[in-house]
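Table S2 (continued). Query chain:
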Amino acid sequence: MSSFPLTRQTFWGNKIYGNIYLIYNVYYNGCFSKKIEHESMKIYNSTQNNIIADEVKVAENFFTRSVGLLCRKSILPSEALIIKPCCSIHTIFMKFSIDVLFVNKKNEIVALHQNLKPWRILPIHLRSHYVIELAAGQIAVNNICLSDIINLETE
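Corresponding output:
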């Protein structure tokens, strides 16, 4: 009796490889981690002349955009998640409130939502190119307003 090799080329191999890859991505993209794995990036409000967040994660692929902050228990005031591209978000299954900034291609804030509670769906903002999710209260703390210009600075 010969053994059936589970290689990537076989049907079962593809299925198992895909599931392992999915689990790997969930674990390393922050769903099971307690802290956002951040890039060396800061979000700077050039209109108000202050730093909004200095521990930033960017969600640019399908999986990271889908998961976002859903599996997190909280987010620190210095942390942020940029979802790119994005024109609407939801907080279904989230465990905490967030502040949300909708930013257009010119890096101008076109909409903002403060203290968005779990189990909410925001309307579509067609002018938005990306979304910045912050800890609840950060819009008020940083005095962020509509039409402020946002700069993403890499270190």
